[in-house]
Structures are given as structure tokens and as C-alpha cells.
Amino acid sequence: MLLALLLITAIAAGGFAVTYLFEDGEPFLWRFGAGTVIGSALFGTVLFVFASIGGLSALVAAAALLVTLAPTVLIAGGPRRKRFQRDWDRAKGKTHGASPAKALRFFYYAGFLLLFILFFAQTMYVTDQGIFTGGSNNLGDLPFHLGAILSFTDGANFPPQNPSFAGAKFSYPFVADLITAGFMRLGVGLREAMVIQNIAWAFGLLVVLERFVLKLTSDRLTARLAPPLLFFSGGLGFIWFFGDLGVQGKGLVEILNQLPKDYTIGDEFRWGNSLITLFMTQRSLLLGMPLTIIVLGALWKIFNSPSRAVSAGLPEGESAKSPVAIAPGPDPVTLPIFIIGVIAGTLPLVHLHSLAVLFVVTGVLFFLRFDRWWSFIVFGVGVCVVALPELAWSLSGSASETTKFFGWHFGWDSRDINVLWFWVKNTGLFIPLLAVGIYLFCFLQTGKGAKGAEAVDQKPFKLLLFYIPFAALFIISNIAKLAPWEWDNIKVLIYWWIGSIPFVAFAVAWMWRKAAALKLVAVLCFVGLTLSGSLDVWRTVSGAVKTRVFDADAVKLAEKLKSSVPAKALFLNAPTYNSAIVLTGRQSLMRYSGHLSSHGIDYLPRENDVKKIYTGGPQAEELLNKYQIDYVLVSPEERTAMRANEAFFSRFPVAAEAGQYKVYKIR
User: Fold this and answer.
1) 130 φ, ψ to 5°?
2) Whole-model pTM?
């Protein structure tokens, strides 16, 4: 665990230094949080390039780490050194002396850090009975990520091929898993690497989100409320919880210790709490979201910057009437904007949906602030420098069919439920408070901010205009599916939630400050916004969920195979999510159809061939030769789901076995 902490700290140091290339006024804590995710993206991207050339070895991982650390020379001397010293002195000053405000600030961050430690510790744990997860929605996702990680460390999977669909390019954004593999090459255990990275990225998300909302609203209380609204997101599930409490006849403490189900995802609810349905299960989003929010903060600075007409001495009213006619020249300060573009450019292999969100947001803002066209062009060039090569690589040879990633589909995942009731049930008070927050911030403010808030240095309507692309994301996600599985629209919808949080949090903060009677309303609103999500998060943290992903025999078999089977061997196994082959890092002809379909892969022809092989006979011989299968797994899953003909495979030598698991060597 200590080594993992040292490595993530080293990566954060490199990203920390990069922040001095595009931000002047951010505090030390923000630079640390942003640096963690920027450094991780840099490390993962460089590691991908190096490993694709020379394979993934300890030397290659160390070389990538050195490149990630290289930006630290930027703060070794000169003006940036002075800025670093200034930030360091300010950070130390905040720790001197004692006050209620400082104590609250400390417990705020310490509380979230403790939450992340307890929560992500449940991602995966190993016992004598096998590999388990404490995440209620992590049953299929954990083996997928393990398969990707171990394909890099044990399967010599470079350049990356899809370990779940042999012969196809690994077009899924895999950088988060590659970073874990890099840590393992440097001596960190699998579980320790995953847990430390998840904690670090979640804390980075906390810090950059809080600062992003502060930039937008200039209100510290609003900014403090924003992270809980994300991490404890949910709808009206708490009402169902109290209903269950009455029906079961158990005490509150008793039922809390063993919560029987989730209250944000399931048959009744589809939104899902962000921690349990997104950040534990989709590690790519956990890294991609804070990167995206950093970029959104920079785009806000461009969007909120003064008109060139004002800086040129023209009347502001004239600029507002004819912003396009001014046609200002290039902005002399282009390096920070370009660097932000480069950071955004890493997203194709980190989290592609986040890049798509930035494309929509930037496109809308470009037309809303056409007088800042040069800044947006520089940003776009920075994006293209990294993103275009990554996209070209991932799309060439991919088995994903792009036509499956778009189709008209009304109401997201509402199924047969009335759409309006669906959104009320799944988001609760969020949308009503969004409307209240827009009114309070944009139509009630006088320009000096709410009582107790910092001075607002931008027109309230600027933020309303900035919100337009986020509202567009919500509308688009409700009229079309943006992935083969419509629920995956959540990868876009979550950014509508991010864009809406400033208004929702502002509404709660305004009520808290306005009058004593409204304080109770503010508290009730905050509880209503977070209680359902809190119940689901507590269910994971408390250990109420104990789901076995791999049994002990699967783990034993995998260990035997890793030491006796070539790294590039191709396996045949049942198309299930938790095949023992996942733990070997070797390629499978085909794995879980649910993952393949969600990635837009037409798996049906290959699935039919897998079934034919397991039935045995002359056709099986032909297909084994056609796909050049090296080994075949016969386990309880193959015997049940595939009706494996063991008499047919018994003529092949047994390469390894454990309990009811057998692997036959075909070639």
C-alpha cells in the first residue's frame, strides 16, 4: 500500500506542475487534486505509447513515470517557482491557528477522504472462498476491468487487443486499467493499485468540482454543497425505504446494518447513485470526469472573459449589440488554452463520452461567444494534437459498429413509466430546485451576490447561457440513445447533473442564509437530495453486499495457467462475465455478450460458433482450426450453459485442472 501511495504521489507531482502552465490563481489543494488526474492521464498515455513499442515491463513503466515527473522542472526556478512558493505559503497559513471555520474545512475533506477509503475498499477483496466485491452493481464490471488489467500484465497485450473478443482492437477506453497495470509492474499488488487510484481520483474529483462551482457562482457555501449532491445523488428512493421499514417490522438500526436492496437503482429506479453505479464500476469515468471538469472550468474562463470591445475602449452596449462585427484579433496568451486542449485530447482513451460532452459544450459556447473565436480555435488545435491520433488508432480494426451508438429513443430508460413521473421519482427535488436556483441566481441577484457570498464578478445571465449546452445534453439524452444500451446515456446525462449542480446548490445555500424559517427548509431539501444515495453508499460501506465473482477453484486454475501457458494463447470458454480465463490475462475468443453488445460488437455469429464447438463433432474440429484455438475451458458454466461434450474434448491432453475446472490443450 505504501508503494502505491508513493507512486500516485509522484504522478500527482507531475500533474501538479502542469497546472502552472494554465492556471495562476488556484490554491494548493486544487493543484494537488487536479494534478492527480492530469498526471494520471499523462502517465497512462505515455505508458500506452511506450508499452506498444517495447511491451509492458518494469523498465517501461519506470520510464513512463519519469516522463510524468518531467514537468516538475517547470517549478524548479523562475516565476513559476515564486508562484509555487506563494501557494505553499498560503497553504501553510491556512493550517496555522485554530478556528471553527478551519476545523469545519478539515473535517469536510477528511470526512470525504474517509468515505472514499471505506467505499473503494469494497471494490474487490480476496478470501479463501475466492474473489468478492462489495459493490451491488460491480458483479459484471469488476471482471471486465480485471481482464483488461491482467491482459496488460500477464497477456502481453500490446498493442492492445480486446481480451473479450480476440482479434479486434481494444477500442474501449482502457487508460485507467493500464495505469493499474503499470503500478503492478512497479511492484504494487492488484487490489492495492486499484483502491489507491480510485481513492485518489475520487478526491481529485471532489476538489475540482468544488472549485468549479465556486468559479461559476462565487459562493463558497454553494461550492461546498456541490460534491455531496454528486456523490450522494439519488431520487425518491428513501420513501420506498421508509415503506420497507414499516413492512418488515424491524428497527431502524437493524435494517440499516443489513440493507436488503439499493434505493437508487433497480426495478423501481434507473438513475443510480454516482458512486455505486458509475465511479466504482466505470473506472474510466472516475478518471475522465475530473479531467473534463478541469477543462470546463477553463472554458468558463474563456466564456466569461470581458468583451474585446470593452478592452478596446468601445462602449459595452455596442459590443453586446454586435459581438460578431467586432471580429477581434488573436489572443496573445494562447499557451494556457492550448495546454487545456491537450489535456482534453487525452480523453479518447480515458473516457470517450466525456470528449463527446466537451464537443457539444465547446460547439455551443463557440457560437454564443463568437468574439472569442481565437481562444476556441487554439483549444481545438490542442485537442486535435492528441485526440486525432488516439481516435485513428482506436477506430482502425475495431469490431464496434458506430451505427449502433445512435438511434432515436424517447424517455431514456423510462420503459413503460410516464416520463415526467420517471424523472421526478429518479431525481426527486433536483429538477424543481434547479428551476428555483436559476431564478434566484439569474433573476433575483443584483450583481453583488447573496448575503455572505463573495462578490460576483460576472453577470448572472452569463451562467445561464453557459448552462445551455448542459440542458441540451439532457434533451438529447431523452430523445436518442447514444450507446447500444440506452442506459449508457447516463455517461452523458451525468454531465447534465454536473452542469445543474451549481444552481441546485445555490438554491439550498440561499434558503439557508435567507431567514431562520428557511433554514429548516434548506436542511430538508438537502436531506431529500442526498438521503437515497446515502442509503446506497452506506449499504456498500457497511459490507452488507458480499458477492462472489470468482470461486476458489477459478482462482487456483488461473494461477496454474499463468505459469504454464504462453501469454499469447487463445482460449475458448463460455461467454460469461466471470470466466476463470479472465484471471489469466489471456485472450478469449468471446466473453460476456452483455459487455460486447454495449460496445457495439456484433457477437452473434461468433457466439453460435462457440456453441457448436462445445457440442463436439466434425464441425467443432473445423471451427477450432478456423479460430486457431489453443486451449478450451470446461467448467460448471460450460457444462450447464454450453452443454459441453466432454467425451469429445477428453482426447486432448489436460493442461491444468482445479476442482471442477479443466483446461484441454488443443494446439
Assistant:
1) 135, -155
2) 0.94
